[in-house]
Amino acid sequence: xxxxxxxxxxxxxxxxxxxxxxxxxxxxxxxxxxxxxxxxxxxxxxxxxxxxxxxxxxxxxxxxxxxxxxxxxxxxxxxxxxxxxxxxxxxxxxxxxxxxxxxxxxxxxxxxxxxxxxxxxxxxxxxxxxxxxxxxxxxxxxxxxxxxxxxxxxxxxxxxxxxxxxxxxxxxxxxxxxxxxxxxxxxxxxxxxxxxxxxxxxxxxxxxxxxxxxxxxxxxxxxxxxxxxxxxxxxxxxxx
Length: 240
Hints:
CATH superfamily of the domain at 2-85 and 151-230: P-loop containing nucleotide triphosphate hydrolases
GO molecular function, one term: ATP hydrolysis activity
Family: Belongs to the ABC transporter superfamily.
Radius of gyration: 18 Å
Organism: Enterococcus alcedinis
CATH architecture of the domain at 2-85 and 151-230: 3-Layer(aba) Sandwich
Structural class: alpha/beta
Protein name: Manganese ABC transporter ATP-binding protein
Shape: globular
Keywords: ATP-binding, Nucleotide-binding, Transport
């Protein structure tokens, strides 16, 4: 069981970005984190990962996150990525192997074969020697998913992975994420496109600085519950 307890983040010690968010996930699945702009969705993800100062904690089977650090994969928003960094697609994917390597260990042929397999899974093997800056947004997002594949992480955190990518890339990524779920992974996705929510996620976390609702998607994704977070904003259900 994965549990988030009283997660709180404040700016300048006064203004709350997220306020005492608590929930628990009892089994592997794909969990969508939704809410209006400024709701604290990305902040919650970073707090769960101990990437920013916060109060509260995340545990798995009552043990602190630190024990499972090597089993965590985090994909940030594409806007923070330096596409000019001189690294090839294959090298980028290989970074997912290093959490399980000792400092002095080099990658083996078996490791590079694993990189090739992951790139093939996201249909990017033909681009393995390309520099990452040569890729489209969707292609690069697939490369980042390939990196999580080689890492074999148990906990996967994706921050707005579908922003600005093509439909084919989105479909490939979701297909792989469903396979990962079946393999026992816990997958958290900050998401903004409400038209896809019903088919993408097993559970939903709806928030607006504080937790509004958490549970099975068909129980949370209802107009009256969504209105508590989005207020008078336009809410689109099922693409309608």
